[in-house]
C-alpha cells in the first residue's frame, strides 16, 4: 500500500513538473516568435509628485500580447527570457522604444524622466555601456532623463564588478535607481558605495499601510535613510489616499501606483496628464 501510494505521489509530482517544464518550453519558443512578429509593447506608469500633482517621470513596463493566449505578464516571461539570453535582444528593444517615446514627450514640451528596468543578464553584458550610449546618441535623448532600475540582488555577488559597472553607467550621465528596495539581500554598508541616485520603496512595505505598524516603521526608516544618504526616494505600489498621506507626512513625495495611474499605453498618457492638471487646478 505504502509503495503504491509512494508511486502515485511520485507520478503526480512528476506530472506537475512536466507541466511546468512544458510551459517554460512553450513560452521560450513563443518568445522567439514574438520578438520577430512584434507582439511586445511598452506601457508607461506615471510617477507623480504628490505635492504639486505634476508627472516627474515614467516607468516603462513591457507587455506581451500573445495572439492566442492574450496578455502574458512579465513576471512569467522575463525570467525565461533572462535564462535563455533572449532578454538581451528584448532589453535592447525596450531601451530604444522607451527613449524614443521620451523624446516624443520632450518635443511636446513635456518634462519627466524615463525609467527602464534592467535584468541581471543585461547588467553583466559587456556591451551594455556602448548600447546605452548609442541609443542616447541616436535618439538625441539628454542622458540625465534616462533612469535605469536595478535590483539589490544584481549588485551583490561580485560587488566590486557591480560598482565598476555602475560607475561606467554614471559616467554616461544617466540616473541609477535601486528597485524593490528592502526585499533583497544588499547590505547597508554597500549602499553608500553604490553610485546610485534613488531608491524605490518596494510595494510589499507600502501595501498594508496604514494597517501594519511595522511596515509603517520600515517605510519611514527607508525614507529617512535615503534622505540622509541624499538619495531620491520613490514609493511603489501606492493604491490609497491614506498611503499618499502617510508618505507625504514622512517626506516621500514621488509616488507611483494605481492610486494615480496604472501603467498606460502611450496614447493615454496625455489624457491622464490633463486630468491630473485639472485636479491640481492648473
Ligand atoms: P517592477 O519594476 O517592480 O514594476 C512594478 C510592478 O508593479 C509593475 O508590474 C506594475 O504594473 C506594478 N504596479 C504598479 N503600481 C501598482 C499598484 O498600485 N498595485 C499593484 N498591485 N501593482 C502595481 P508589471 O508591469 O507586471 O511588471 C512586473 C515586473 O516585471 C517589474 O517589476 C519588473 O521587475 C519586470 N519588468 C517589467 N518590464 C520589464 C522590462 O522591460 N525589462 C525587465 N528586465 N523587466 C521588466
Ligand atoms: Mg521597476
Ligand atoms: Mg519597481
Ligand atoms: Mg519594484
From TrEMBL:
Coiled coil spans: none
Secretion signal span: none
EAL domain sequence ranges: 24-277
Name under which the protein is recorded: Diguanylate phosphodiesterase
Species, as recorded: Pseudoalteromonas aurantia 208
